[in-house]
Design brief:
Elements: E1 3-16, E2 20-27, E3 31-37, H1 44-47, E4 56-62, E5 69-79, H2 88-104, H3 112-128, H4 132-145, E6 166-170, E7 175-177, E8 188-191, H5 192-201, H6 216-233, H7 239-245
Parallel strand pairs: 3-5
Antiparallel strand pairs: 1-2, 1-4, 2-3, 4-5, 6-7, 6-8
Helix pairs in contact: 2-3, 2-4, 2-7, 3-4, 4-6, 5-6
The protein binds zinc ion.
The site of zinc ion has 7 residues, from loops.
């Protein structure tokens, strides 16, 4: 087996037996991988802080013949991102980002862009801390990379234009609905301006998180429409999501 060296973000780890750890990490070129770190809990010398969640590392690993666990040989810490632990909001949002990559993409469906997006998101939170904008930028881009983005700026049924003002929206109906196509399926009303705002966000580089300031209405309606779209595609409830929604309950859809 050829030893591999990958840039990696640690998504999470769990204890195994007396002394070992199982670590899930995300790489740009091999997607998501689960690895076995022998003696990682017993000896801090070998891996140190390099296997902590959200850390970025250079990971030396070896594919094993059978099973889906690789063997972790060594890890050089590149960035710990200790700023993520500044407060519970920031820490929870960072955990939510990692969990989203796990539920929206299967192991083979993760490309380099998902890695770059999560990397930029964690770097942003590490420096700037929690914001609703960072959360919404992550959600809309993750949905888009997963191929789950609903139609925003035209009718999902007839592809015709949408009226100004409130527009009917339903992720189950694949997005916005014009008055002619909305036969009661629209479960949300989202202003045309908000739909335009999120449409334009998708045109920006996916690693850019600074200098986005959304109006209270765009934040609230964005939360509702992205929440609806995510609910359609998440195959299990997210542990971090319920916790995260406690930090801004007034915007909960
Ligand atoms: Zn229509």
């Amino acid at each position: 087996m050829k030893p591999q060296l990958s840039q990696a973000i640690i998504l999470h780890h769990s204890a195994y037996g007396e002394a070992d750890r199982i670590v899930t990490f995300l790489t740009p070129d091999h997607g998501r991988i689960k690895g076995f770190a022998r003696a990682a809990r017993k000896s801090r010398k070998r891996f140190g802080a390099a296997l902590e969640p959200f850390a970025e590392v250079q990971l030396h690993w070896l594919a094993r013949g059978s099973g889906d666990l690789v063997s972790l040989r060594d890890a050089d810490l590149v960035k710990l991102r200790s700023g993520l632990r500044r407060d519970l909001e920031t820490l929870t949002l960072a955990g939510y980002g990692c969990e989203l990559t796990e539920v929206l993409f299967d192991d083979s469906g993760i490309g380099v862009e998902v890695f770059q997006l999560l990397q930029a998101f964690l770097d942003h939170l590490d420096i700037h801390g929690y914001s609703v904008e960072a959360r919404l930028l992550l959600e809309v881009r993750m949905l888009s990379l997963a191929g789950y983005m609903p139609h925003l700026q035209h009718c999902a049924d007839c592809f015709g234009p949408l009226p100004n003002g409130p527009v009917s929206f339903s992720a189950a109906a694949d997005g916005s609905l014009c008055p002619g196509c909305d036969d009661g399926r629209g479960i949300l009303k989202v202003d045309r301006l908000t739909l335009g705002t999120f449409g334009r966000i998708l045109q920006t580089p996916l690693t850019r998180f600074v200098d986005f300031k959304l109006s209270p209405r765009s934040r609230q309606e964005g939360r509702a429409l992205l929440g609806d779209a995510l609910r359609c595609h998440l195959h299990r409830p997210l542990k971090s999501l319920e916790f995260l929604n406690r930090f801004s309950p007034e915007e909960t859809a």
